[in-house]
UniProtKB/TrEMBL annotation:
Naturally occurring in which organism (per UniProt): Streptomyces platensis
Active site positions: S91 (nucleophile)
Protein name: D-cysteine desulfhydrase
Presence of the UniProt keyword Ribonucleoprotein in the record: no
EC number(s) given by UniProt: 4.4.1.15
Gene: dcyD
Keywords: Lyase, Pyridoxal phosphate
Amino acid sequence: MKHPVDLATALRPRPPSPLQEIEDERFARRGVRLLLKRDDLIHTTLPWDTAALGPVELYPPGNKWRKLAPNLRAAAAAGERALLTFGGAYSNHLRATAAAGRLLGFATIGVVRGDELADAPRNPSLARCAADGMRLHFIDRARYRRRADPEVLAELHERFGAFRLIPEGGSNALAAQGCTELGRELRGTADTVAVACGTGGTLAGLAAGLGPGQRALGFPVLKGGRPHFLQETVEELQRAAFGGPRGDWRLEERFHCGGYARRTPELDAFATAFEDRHGLPVERIYVAKLLYGLTTLAEEGAFAPGSTVAAVITGTP
Ligand SMILES: Cc1ncc(COP(=O)(O)O)c(C=O)c1O
């Protein structure tokens, strides 16, 4: 059956997201320039008449777009019509996949961590997924941890039929390849490029796309259970995507503020003040920790005077 949307046009590369310099005395005092790579503003106008498809602002912006687009292209090329992916109850990635599926004509299935949520009222994030047509399937946490096991996947296939599997957070080899474009857009602009990390696909691709002499700095927002877990995950993603290590990157693990979606009074105060000072709405789960960590490092003198730091703004509140 013909795909309902012209995917080649819909999934063509977007123009580079804007780069914006801001004045912040905590950086300026140290002779460091601060740039914001506004991936939250990635061009979202869809190139076809969306009247029948609904509001375009739900189209996934930023790193979600960069990670999903190559997976959707591969699914379309293989004639696949359904996407299955995984996430927690507040997953940005589940929402992005649901929105992309609705707009681009894929059926979507979201496997959600926590079977206790099945009968609870839907939170706004899961309600949005359902409104975008995603079938939600709740599984218990022990099973969720084993989501990559052949036995669990076989069960999902039995229940839902054929689908393209996209891992939690959308991070796989194709996603990392998609994020190289982010690095390429930043070539020659900054000495250090910083990004918040969840599942690591964005950092894996960003680092691979940067030019010589540039380094990438990842700020994990999760408190890893196992030491160096994310380090190994990013290395593995780079092996799968590029055949081996790429680029100069490292993780700065001091700024998870207690773990995923955890906040501290200092983090909140910092984010509110940053919003007031720069008029930038600060997404709290990822972007706030990135900016908080970077600013602390600048105040500690971690960046050489005369150097430039770019922070990738991956999402909106
Ligand atoms: C706003 C935002 N920033 C950063 C990330 C981290 O991306 P990754 O999971 O590729 O490390 C995510 C998750 O996809 C996100 O939603």
